Amino acid sequence: MHLCIYEDALADNFLPLTFFRPVYDLRCGVMTLREKIGHGVPHTGMTLHVRPFLADVLREQNHGISVNRLDAACCLFVNGRIVMTPRAAVLIRRQKSDLLFVKGDEIVGACLSGRRLDDIKGQVGTGYPDFSAFADLPRIVLDVTLLVHPWDILSANAAEIIADHNLIGHGISSRAKIHAGAILAGRSRIAVGKGSVIGPGAVLDAREGPVVVGRDVRIYPGAVLEGPCAIGDGSVVRIHAKIYAGTSIGPVCKVGGEIEGSVIHSHANKQHDGFLGDSYLGMWVNLGAGTTNSNLKNTYGTIRMEINGHSVDTGRIFAGLIAGDHTKTGINSTINTGTVIGPSSNIFGGGLPPKSVPAFAWGGAAGFETYQLEKALAVAVTVMSRRNVTASDAYKDLFRHVYSMTAHEREHFTS
């Protein structure tokens, strides 16, 4: 059956992380939300529904997959904010007749055909699919986590590393190079992909949860990885790095220092000393040497974060930094508890910058100015080329669109 993974209006709750990607391409555990759905629900074809401004880039990145266009006689719809489980996947793929999938009172998917499907097809291209008109259909309850804010990813991440390892973990490749002086504790729960190199004195400690190391990863001597944690393909873990439980490092990252309970999406650097805790970094982020964030208030109270213009209580005692794509910090930057930084912003200088920094802001505690668009774009193109990634015309158009989308945030923030 055809599968459509769709966004709903709450995709904006995940800004600034969803300025450059759909919500279902966020990472939680070893895989992205989309990868979990696709793994659990076999399909004969796929449609990706996304907010219109992201469609052209998504088409470029997903050749052979339909974006915002649905041509099928019968279709399974799954909300991209779902953290798919094997049990939920079984329930979804068993269905052959029209019905709704629900989590509590919320509709989180559907199986539709005929006239009902025709009613939804136009919405896939122009807005958000709305299944509320089909309230008369039978309902199947899914026992899944439905993410609402970025910190929900952090709350689920450790358990999802374990779940993903159970689905895709393949042990230690015979084509990995593991130094005799490396320590592998809980070896049965360690996965290392082919081409990866584990240096002398490195410790992979899987006694409390799996350690998943992808392909062509280099773990330098003396680095310590505590499970559950995951390191993506082509990433580098520097000498004496301390990677604590609940951390997912995506592909092509360079990491060092101390990282705990965090997600680094992909193609990002946090390779020097300094602490990163309970944080999510988007793509192309670079944290300068000594950058450290706070993840705990002195009062031990719950932490509020500014999300899409609203101050929201996370309900968490530990919450650090949410950084949009292309964010950069200067050396020895200090980031306050519960800080949100928009894409392509640069933080530097002494003192604590504000807890909410809009996109394309340049400065620090002493004040900000606007990071001019074409200068920011030129830097982004250079950074991407260093990882052999070409910024296409569609990507550049998206970059400029995000600048325009966020102009109102800078009106009274920058000089």
- How far is it from the N-terminal to the C-terminal residue, by CA? 54 Å
Low-confidence runs of at least 5 consecutive residues? none
Strand order of the largest sheet: 12-15-18-21-24-27-32-35-37
Strand content: 25-35%
CATH homologous superfamily placement of the largest domain: Hexapeptide repeat proteins
- Main β-sheet: number of strands, strand sense, barrel status? 9 strands, parallel
Number of helices: 8
Structure characterization notes:
The chain is an alpha/beta fold. It has 2 domains: 2-148, Spore Coat Polysaccharide Biosynthesis Protein SpsA, Chain A; 152-410, UDP N-Acetylglucosamine Acyltransferase, domain 1, CATH 2.160.10.10. The chain is built from 8 helices and 39 strands. Strands 12-15-18-21-24-27-32-35-37 form a 9-stranded parallel β-sheet. Strands 3-2-1-4-7-6-8 form a 7-stranded mixed β-sheet, sandwiched between helices. The protein is globular and about 60 Å long. The N and C termini lie far apart (54 Å).
What key attributes describe this structure?
about 425 residues; alpha/beta; Spore Coat Polysaccharide Biosynthesis Protein SpsA, Chain A; UDP N-Acetylglucosamine Acyltransferase, domain 1; 2 domains; nine-stranded parallel sheet; seven-stranded mixed sheet; 8 helices; about 20% helix; about 30% strand
Helices and strands, with pairings:
Blueprint: E1 2-6, H1 33-40, E2 45-48, H2 55-61, E3 66-67, E4 74-79, E5 82-83, H3 86-94, E6 99-103, E7 106-113, H4 114-126, E8 139-141, E9 145-146, H5 150-168, E10 177-178, E11 183-185, E12 190-192, E13 197-198, E14 203-205, E15 211-213, E16 218-219, E17 224-226, E18 229-231, E19 236-237, E20 242-243, E21 247-249, E22 254-255, E23 258-260, E24 263-264, E25 269-270, E26 275-277, E27 280-281, E28 286-287, E29 292-293, E30 304-307, E31 310-313, E32 321-323, E33 328-329, E34 334-335, E35 339-341, E36 346-347, E37 356-357, E38 361-364, E39 367-370, H6 373-385, H7 393-405, H8 407-410
Parallel strand pairs: 1-2, 1-4, 2-3, 6-8, 10-13, 11-14, 12-15, 13-16, 14-17, 15-18, 16-19, 17-20, 18-21, 19-22, 20-23, 21-24, 22-25, 23-26, 24-27, 27-32, 28-33, 29-34, 32-35, 33-36, 35-37, 36-38
Antiparallel strand pairs: 4-7, 5-9, 6-7, 30-31, 38-39
